[in-house]
Amino acid sequence: MALNTFQRLRELDFGYQVLAALYLCERMYPNYELFHQVTGFGDPQPLRGALNACWDWSWQGKKVKVNFSRWQEKVDDITPSEHGHDMLGVYPAMDACTAISIMLQGFIDKNEADLVSVAKVSQAGVAKFLELTEGAEMEPDARRQMLREHELAVYEIEVQQALVDFLEAMQASKAPPSQAMVRQLQEMVVTEGITNIGMERDSES
């Protein structure tokens, strides 16, 4: 039986799980950026700073000092709450912060489960977005079918599987995480051009 995406992520070495989590967080980051632009709430800089620091650490390791706990505090400080914002965009913004915070916790604890959870947050975020938009008026059975078949939900799984394909190939070639690999992944995010909920991303983000 073929392994699902989460199982395949669990099979990767920790260094490649780090890259997978970073890639998926990078895809979610612009959702927060747009929320900030629309509402004026928070500040994207702690998210951007945390991602940049973690990308550097992902291939340099102990050569760079990253205070993951401090970055996590900064991210938690600018995480919005659904109670204070009556708009759909708050949920993808919350997901971006949650994913980055969980990822940082995984780095602090060297906990692979947290890194796999980033993929779960991204998939769940797509489902929540679809439920609140196209699925809002649907009957439960129709909604469930929509969540399985919608192009955004299918695409999210395809992106995660393609990411794991890439990382599995790198691992099989015995290539350790490197600056070139990090740049390739960062370029893949930008080239994709959209976030996990299908929002166009600024090419500079």
The CATH architecture category equals Up-down Bundle
The largest pleated sheet is described as: none
Query: Unreliable segments (pLDDT under 50, ≥5 consecutive)?
Result: none
Structural class: mainly alpha
Count of the domains: 1
The fraction of residues assigned to DSSP E strands is under 5%
| Overall average pLDDT | 94
State the main characteristics.
205 residues, mainly alpha, YP_001051499.1 fold like, 9 helices, 0% strand, DUF416 domain-containing protein, DUF416
What does this structure look like?
The chain is mostly helical. It has a single domain (1-190), classed as YP_001051499.1 domain like (YP_001051499.1 fold like, Up-down Bundle), CATH 1.20.1590. The protein contains 9 helices and no strands. It has helices at 5-11, 14-39, 45-60, 68-77, 90-109, 112-132, 140-149, 151-172, 179-192. α2 (14-39) packs parallel to α6 (112-132), α2 crosses α9 (179-192) and α6 packs antiparallel against α8 (151-172). The longest helix is centred in the first third of the chain and has 26 residues, at 14-39. It is globular, with a radius of gyration of 17 Å.
